[in-house]
Amino acid sequence: MTGITVTLSDPTAPEARALIAALDHYLGQLYQAEENHLLDPERLKAPDVRFLLARIDGRAVGCGALRIDSSGYAEIKRMYVDPIHRGRGIAGSIMATLEDLAQAEGIKLLKLETGDRQREAVGLYRQLGFTPCGAFGDYRCGGEASIFMEKHL
After folding, report:
1. 0.90 cut: is pTM over it?
2. Any idea what DSSP says for residue 98?
3. pLDDT for 11-62, tens place per residue?
């Protein structure tokens, strides 16, 4: 789609905070607090995280992050597209950029945790080549709502 740009951005900038707050609100409606595994904007500024904003004609409409784990994989975090802009390929553009960043860092495996009530997200991840895997990192069992996926690059 013409007009979409995806760039590394400051997660504490007002436009990023607004998207992150919208995502938190959305997830809060779907899941119990203990089922949400969120990184706040300050944590998204850490040296092991790459945070992206997607813009259409300069307006921030989506975000995503890559958290690089010391054990050699990277985790997809904070994927979100403003509902009025969904269905335009924005999430796919964010994911492609995250994959490019991971490959540039020498990462060969992406992992993610999502929820069973986010059918569109699960469908997108499957379409992009992610397959089910077990819990990883600090996710104990993840809870009944968690779905864990991975993709070899």
Report:
1. yes
2. H
3. 999 999 999 999 999 988 887 767 677 778 999 999 999 999 999 999 999 9
What one-letter code names the amino acid at 4? I
With tokens 């997660």, the residue in question is 11
Residue 101 near residue 64 (C-beta atoms within 8 A): no
CA nearest neighbour of 25 among 13, 33, 16, 34: 33
Task: Provide the pLDDT confidence category of residue 1 given band limits of 50, 70 and 90.
Answer: very low
Max CA distance (Å), the chain: 42
Pairing between β-strand 74-81 and β-strand 59-68 as defined by DSSP bridges: antiparallel
Helix (H) or strand (E) holding 54: strand 49-56
The closest alpha carbon to 86, from 49, 123, 50, belongs to 123
DSSP structure class, residue 41? T
Contacts of 72 (CB under 8 A, 6+ apart): 107, 108, 109
- Considering only 51-65, 72-86, 127-141, which range has the smallest mean pLDDT? 127-141
- The string over 107-135, giving b where at least 16 C-beta atoms fall within 10 Å of a residue's C-beta and e elsewhere, is bebbbbbbbeebeebbebbeeeebeeeee
CA angle, 104 then 118 then 120, to 5°: 70
